[in-house]
């Protein structure tokens, strides 16, 4: 409706309303928000309007203003259909150019809903404060569609809770003020094909103080050492921060719990009064003294029951907790094994099940279920962050969850995990490294370790002790949307880069895990995730991710299992199985989901390899197993999975696991093994002694020193594929014309798993784009689409490639291909036709460029270099030489895929290991020099002089590359690629011999 309609008199409104909207005599007249008669258009900010949104192109619902004879009000209703796989819904935002609305005089908001009786919950949120509807604070609640036909849904404002999983501006004041409101939004159910109709959204009822005022406590849990005094702070606050109109009284009494009054604590009771006129934010304190005795005890609880008059009471009863004391497992001087055995002997089956359970932070709200279910772990999925998304907020959030664990009987701390796959990538402002494919291109194990150390430092300083990294997948088909998470296609290369584990964890014996700059690492995804067959996925529209890996046992051992033995030898703390299925040819089992493969998890990983850490499932992965939910639990636990990532079904999992143990389908011995493994890592991390965040290193997050490591990694990851006429490096005196979609886009440069799961184009964190880096070094003009005049320039640099994606969603055939976009092709064509040009491909995998290769003077595989575009500029302008090598084979066509080093038929655009250099002194020589290098390399190999051996192979490789130029043939490519594999496995003499074969074929 027009905004002026909100100003009509109460009498006119009352006359217009149907009987169902009648109100009490002293209530204000209902205030219409939406009548859906066409007064509010389908439009978005800054105009007032209704608009849809969703997780992908299929998720936004289809809306219309439909005429209905049974409309509760007027002639039309808002009707729609939906089929949502991710998330989707619609919003009504008020105009950003007009003042916000004041809803504070009303009790709540209501609307008519045409029930479908589908039993699903629909989320309803309102938008409070901020600059406009898309920069406001979100408050949410929900209702259940368990009825048929029209029903008026009334929601008091007191039912709305601050949204913890997403806030567009990171939250404002965490207070529902109601004086500056910007509209509402509806989130529709996921996983059903449904329809809905809605009508007559309005504000109703009269707000009174008991609805506008609330009493809160400063915490939900108050741990105190035996004999100490807990101090519970009570605060009164009002909507709009106005003083109290009437008195508020709080009657308190210590009652119930597991502690004994008079023996463990001194009972307290009384009444506190906040008189009329008390300022919002005023506080009072209740003290609960505890008593000391001489016995060793588990933790004991003292609930402080509160009865509030004149205001809304706290959502929870605060719990005073007398800390566990005197028990052997609490003694840090004892060996970890003895501490684990003591604690395990005291735990109930339910407590053990809780330790085996990991929930998503967004599912547990403020964390009461951490206590109620004795949860062992929480995680942040991709993009699941506190608000605001700062290091301080991360630490505060995780400390709050750890505080909940202190209210459990044995005060077993949580282990909190995040997907820090290229830095602390969920945190805005963190140092973002190149994705693993770029790290593989560096061929620099020491640098890989440094990147891990920077990541660990930044992650641990926000209170997170555990990362779901590194990915040890051996990518065998670059149509896979996770290709960039792999170090490369050669298991020898993956093994070589596993120095990152020491960067993350420290020494292999685990002694450094307790340090404030180390984290527990996870080897994933066990086993064969990089080998899935194209077209084998059965997950939604995915084409290859979560599919089937078909291999012989020999291929499994040589390619996919090999990196895991290295990880175990390096002391990896946890391992995550793959979503994918494994089909070992000839064993008669066919494809079996990895979460069900006891032969691989119990037999190979824990048995033969000797892995002593714990196995964590992937996100809801057990739901993909055959059978009912009981079978999912039995199969995965018995297969050797120790902790289940069950983000939103943790209650069902814990209950089912307990039942299955009692039924004898899962043995208590198996449970004890799983829990022992989990507790061992918690003790090693020092969490029992220091459960809360040590933020002393937080000042180093995104620091110059950390970014210097990322800058070096970005520089070393650049692979120079072609360099005709020595176009690169650039000269700072040259006039450079820069174009292309990825020259000045930090989001495209950082890729998926950056701030959000799938990543996004644009600027969403702090960093330097490639263009910004270049501008520091030279005379640069930028035209993204190459529409600016191209005359008068010495050289062009066109930065093209992919936009962000992550697992599955990024699979080729699922809306993606390996071709440059039409705009990128046009930019390349225009610039390269006008001047000498260098093309940089910013992507997670090779792009098909062969049809334009003849027109391009220099070609660079830039991969996904992270936040430090300066590193790319460093090699472009010669501050550092190009030294990177291809970690995967660069194909000529998609029809060649999969193509990998070692294949019998091997005719790529550029072979595995290829990488030109801009070193000032490029090695020279011919066949005689190569033969001499071969003799020296063989001698180095026999002497165990690895560094010398690798240097000799590198020299030979550079000679051979210089000789062949652009004439890469199949006869050249195969021995050239094989040489790099041989060098990585320490066979330096044989590597030079293969390079000699390549030289002769060139």
From TrEMBL:
It catalyses: Hydrolysis of terminal, non-reducing beta-D-glucosyl residues with release of beta-D-glucose. Belongs to the glycosyl hydrolase 3 family. It comes from Streptomyces cylindrosporus. It comes from the Bacteria. Keywords: Calcium, Glycosidase, Hydrolase, Repeat, Signal. This is beta-glucosidase. The keyword Calcium applies. Its EC number is 3.2.1.21. InterPro entries: CalX-like_sf, Calx_beta, CBM11, Cellulose_Degrad_GH3, Galactose-bd-like_sf, GH, Glyco_hydro_3_AS, Glyco_hydro_3_C. Residues 202-307 form the Calx-beta domain. Residues 1-24 form the signal peptide. GO terms for molecular function: hydrolase activity.
């Amino acid at each position: 409706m027009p905004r002026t309609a909100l100003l009509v008199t109460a009498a006119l409104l009352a006359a217009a309303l149907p009987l169902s909207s009648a109100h009490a005599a002293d209530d204000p007249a209902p205030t219409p928000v939406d009548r859906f008669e066409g007064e509010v258009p389908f439009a978005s900010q800054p105009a007032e309007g209704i608009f849809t949104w969703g997780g992908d192109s299929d998720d936004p619902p289809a809306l219309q203003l439909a005429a209905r004879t049974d409309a509760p009000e007027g002639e039309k209703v808002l009707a729609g259909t939906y089929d949502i796989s991710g998330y989707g819904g619609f919003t009504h935002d008020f105009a950003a150019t007009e003042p916000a609305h004041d809803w504070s005089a009303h009790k709540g908001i209501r609307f008519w809903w045409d029930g479908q009786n589908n039993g699903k919950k629909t989320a309803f949120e309102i938008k409070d404060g901020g600059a406009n509807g898309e920069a406001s604070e979100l408050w949410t609640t929900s209702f259940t569609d368990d009825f048929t036909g029209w029903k008026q849904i009334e929601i008091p404002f007191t039912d709305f809770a601050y949204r913890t999983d997403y806030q567009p501006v990171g939250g404002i004041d965490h207070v529902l003020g109601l004086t500056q409101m910007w509209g509402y939004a509806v989130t529709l159910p996921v996983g059903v094909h449904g329809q809905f109709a809605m009508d007559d959204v309005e504000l109703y009822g009269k707000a009174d103080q008991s609805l506008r005022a609330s009493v809160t406590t400063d915490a939900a849990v108050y741990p105190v050492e035996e004999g100490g005094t807990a101090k519970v702070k009570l605060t009164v606050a009002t909507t709009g921060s106005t003083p109290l109109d009437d008195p508020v009284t709080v009657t308190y009494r210590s009652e119930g719990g597991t502690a004994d009054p008079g023996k463990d604590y001194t009972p307290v009771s009384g009444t506190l009064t906040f008189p009329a006129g008390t300022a919002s934010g005023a506080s009072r304190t209740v003290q609960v003294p505890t008593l000391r005795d001489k016995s060793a005890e588990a933790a004991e609880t003292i609930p402080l029951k509160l009865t509030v008059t004149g205001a809304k009471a706290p959502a929870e009863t605060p719990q005073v907790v007398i800390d566990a004391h005197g028990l052997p497992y609490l003694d840090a001087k004892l060996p970890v094994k003895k501490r684990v055995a003591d604690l395990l002997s005291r735990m109930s089956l339910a407590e053990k099940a809780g330790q085996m359970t990991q929930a998503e932070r967004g599912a547990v709200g403020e964390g009461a279920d951490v206590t109620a279910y004795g949860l062992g772990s929480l995680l942040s999925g991709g993009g699941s962050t506190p608000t605001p998304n700062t290091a301080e907020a991360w630490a505060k959030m995780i400390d709050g969850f750890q505080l909940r664990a202190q209210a459990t009987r044995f005060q077993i701390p949580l282990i909190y995990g995040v997907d820090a796959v290229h830095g602390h990538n969920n945190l805005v402002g963190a140092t973002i490294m190149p994705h693993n494919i770029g790290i593989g291109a560096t061929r620099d194990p020491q640098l890989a370790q440094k990147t891990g150390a920077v990541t660990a430092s930044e992650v641990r300083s926000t209170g997170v002790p555990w990362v779901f990294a590194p990915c040890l997948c051996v990518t065998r088909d670059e149509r896979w949307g996770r290709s960039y998470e792999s170090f490369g296609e050669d298991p020898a290369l993956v093994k070589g880069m596993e120095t990152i584990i020491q960067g993350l964890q420290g020494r292999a014996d685990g002694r450094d895990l307790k340090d404030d700059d180390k984290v527990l690492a996870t080897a994933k995804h066990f086993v064969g995730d990089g080998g899935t067959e194209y077209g084998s996925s059965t997950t939604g529209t995915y084409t290859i991710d979560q599919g089937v890996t078909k291999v012989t046992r020999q291929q499994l051992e040589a390619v996919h299992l090999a990196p895991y033995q290295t990880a175990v030898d390096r002391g990896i703390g946890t391992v995550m199985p793959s979503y994918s299925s494994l089909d070992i040819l000839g064993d008669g089992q066919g494809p079996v989901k990895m979460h069900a493969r006891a032969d691989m998890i119990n037999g190979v990983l824990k048995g033969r390899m000797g892995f002593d850490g714990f196995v964590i499932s992937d996100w809801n992965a057990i739901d993909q197993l055959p059978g009912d939910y009981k079978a999912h639990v039995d199969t995965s636990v018995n297969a050797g999975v120790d902790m289940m990532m069950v983000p939103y079904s943790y209650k069902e999992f814990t209950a089912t696991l307990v039942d299955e143990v009692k039924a004898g389908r899962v043995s208590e011995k198996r449970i004890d093994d799983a829990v022992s493994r989990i507790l061992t890592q918690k003790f090693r991390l020092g969490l029992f002694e220091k459960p809360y965040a040590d933020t002393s290193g937080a000042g180093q997050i995104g620091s110059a020193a950390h970014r210097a490591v990322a800058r070096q990694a970005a520089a070393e990851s650049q692979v120079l594929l072609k360099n005709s006429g020595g176009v690169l490096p650039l000269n700072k005196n040259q006039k450079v014309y820069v174009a292309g979609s990825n020259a000045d886009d930090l989001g495209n440069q950082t890729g998926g798993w950056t701030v959000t799961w799938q990543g996004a184009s644009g600027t969403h964190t702090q960093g330097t784009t490639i263009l910004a880096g270049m501008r520091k070094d030279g005379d640069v003009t930028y035209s993204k689409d190459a529409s600016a005049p191209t005359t008068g320039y010495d050289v062009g640099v066109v930065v093209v490639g992919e936009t962000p994606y992550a697992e599955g969603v990024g699979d080729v055939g699922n809306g993606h291909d390996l071709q440059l976009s039409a705009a990128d092709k046009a930019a390349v064509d225009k610039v390269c036709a006008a001047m000498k040009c260098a093309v940089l491909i910013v992507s997670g995998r090779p792009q098909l460029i062969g049809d334009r290769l003849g027109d391009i003077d220099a070609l660079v595989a830039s991969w996904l270099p992270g936040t430090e575009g300066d590193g790319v500029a460093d090699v472009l302008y010669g501050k550092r030489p190009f030294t990177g090598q291809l970690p995967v084979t660069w194909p000529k066509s998609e029809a060649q895929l999969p193509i990998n080093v070692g294949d019998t038929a091997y005719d790529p655009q550029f072979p595995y290991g290829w990488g030109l250099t801009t070193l000032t002194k490029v090695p020279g020589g011919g066949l005689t020099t190569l033969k001499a290098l071969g003799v020296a390399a063989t001698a180095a190999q026999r002497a165990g002089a690895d560094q010398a051996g690798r240097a000799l192979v590198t020299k030979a490789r550079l000679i051979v590359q210089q000789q062949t130029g652009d004439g890469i043939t199949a006869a050249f490519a195969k021995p050239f690629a094989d040489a790099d594999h041989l060098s990585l496995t320490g066979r330096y003499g044989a590597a030079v011999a293969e390079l000699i074969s390549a030289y002769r074929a060139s």
